[in-house]
Amino acid sequence: MVAGVHVVVDGDGPPVVLCGGLGGNWFDWDEVVDLLSGTSLVVRIDRPGYGLSPSSGERPSARGEAVRIAAVLDALDVNTPAVVVGHSLGGIYAEAFARLYPERTAGVILLDATVTTRPHRVIPTRWRVGAGRRVARFASRVGLQRRLGPTVRRILNHSTPPDGIAPDIRRWVERIYREPAYLESSIVENASYPALAQELAALRETTALTAPVVVAAAHTGRPTPWGSAWIRTQRQFAEFLGAAFRVVSPAHHHAMIDQPGQIATLARELAS
Prior knowledge:
The protein is an alpha/beta fold. The protein has a domain at about 5-120 and about 195-270: Rossmann fold, CATH 3.40.50.1820. Helix content is about 50%, strand content about 15%. It is built from 11 helices and 7 strands. The chain has helices at about 30-35, 60-75, 90-100, 125-140, 145-155, 165-175, 180-190, 195-205, 225-240, 255-260, 260-270; strands spanning about 5-10, 15-20, 40-45, 80-85, 105-110, 215-220, 245-250. A 7-stranded mixed β-sheet has the order 1-3-2-4-5-6-7, with helices on both faces. Helix 2 (about 60-75) crosses helix 3, helix 3 (about 90-100) runs parallel beside helix 8 and helix 4 (about 125-140) packs antiparallel against helix 7.
């Protein structure tokens, strides 16, 4: 444990921090790390309740996670500016870190990131989070999560590593996705999304992005209306941030699993 959470560190060189999306775990990045660790110090952080990190009774916040990343880097004695990669909802935390710690940021990759250009909140966050906790605890109490957790993962995550899913990752999925803390943490983070988006919007008004940013959108390579709409939305997001835009293809949403080589190349370019 580092700074109260599970952290995995590999390699040596310019630092790269990998932030998973909603429900993301350290092993989702294994193939990227295999390619990066020869030239970079790669840091993976499991947020509270994910992976092997203990759960927390606190609601997640953009600033809180940015502070956590800084605390982990401090604990590891990492003083060199880092490339921070944020996948999906993790893009909120990566961008928040870059805005709050510009001197510690060498670059940002927002990988198929949640688009937060028009944040809105109708139902109060405390109601959403409270209801989410009750749903998660009920599902765990009646055994739904233990029976269906890994199956839900297979339904939601369509990505496959180039060499197939390793046996150790299958074992971790079977273990982690059955944990009550994992389900509750995922539901609470999802319920907190509107507040996270509004918090990031407020940060954008007061703190600039000074490091180079790449918005990398995943695309399956198949021409579909929704795929084209997603690429268009991600391109507009890049324009909104003044960022470079790249397409990772062929890839599903968890592009770091489908195309670890492309993600490693983007990170290496920014780190250098």
